Amino acid sequence: MLHAHGGSRRMMHAALPAMPAPHSRAALLGRWLRHARGAVLWATLCALVAVNLAAAALAHMGLSQAQQIVGLAAVSVLTAAMVGGLALMFTARMSQDAQQLAQVLDALAYQDSVTGLYNRHAAMLHLQEAMASAQADSTGLSVVTFDLDDFKLINDTLGHAVGDEVLRLVAARLRDSLRPGARAYRFGGDEFVVICPCDGGFADPLRYGTLVQQALSGLTWLDGHELDLSGSVGVARYPLDGHTPQDVVRASDIAMYEAKSRGKGHLVVFAQALRLATEHRMQLPGGGLPMRACPIQPAAGASSSPGW
Fold this sequence. Notes:
Elements lengths: L5 H10 L6 H38 L5 H46 L9 H18 L3 E8 L2 H8 L1 H18 L5 E6 L2 E6 L2 H5 L1 H12 L1 E5 L2 E5 L1 E8 L6 H17 L5 E3 L2 H12 L14 E2 L2 E5 L2
């Protein structure tokens, strides 16, 4: 199946390494706050200079020593109060701005802008954490990858605005159906991933894959068109099918493409034979993961709507 938003998906993946990691964002905020403290120190230094200038001016006014001391004390108190107030205001403002910056950077680095789900970058981080926890507890987990069937037809016949609404609808259905501890992600285009960090997902991958498939499937009305959504689902397990986040996601992706090659609405659990077959296919001229285009068939009674 040909994927929509292929160019934007490649651009997003290419941009991900440039996104600030958690430790680099913390360093950025730390430098910002250090600069704020530096500004306060400069303000204090300027205040001291002002006090010295005031002292020199009082000395030239012919006042007694006692009067000079009183005047200098008054100037010092007023200057200190002004500097202290400005320092507090500046520090509070910088702290608020730093928090807002952290939220913006988190959204850019880890959130999909169309659906609000986590993105691929976040998935790899979360999967690494889930694997470490599973290894410590001697348990396993499942990764479910699914791709909407005929999504390109929606974009081609109804427009990308409706396609984005479909993506948001699928994201909402996933949120409503996730089991405790599970998380949903959009990897780009019409590809979604669910991480199921529990023994149940490892022991019964078909059941969890079916739950995800049922959540995304079904009739819906969008922009005056009735759409019968379905998806091709692949499931892989840690540690059975890979020992790194990249390996497990790759295995789940291979299983999903195998499901897609069998027709709409299929579900496949990864097996090593699939990996061998894919590696063999990659070595052939024009090899790669299977991609197929589906003919456009107008739905009965609505010539502008795709049939499923």
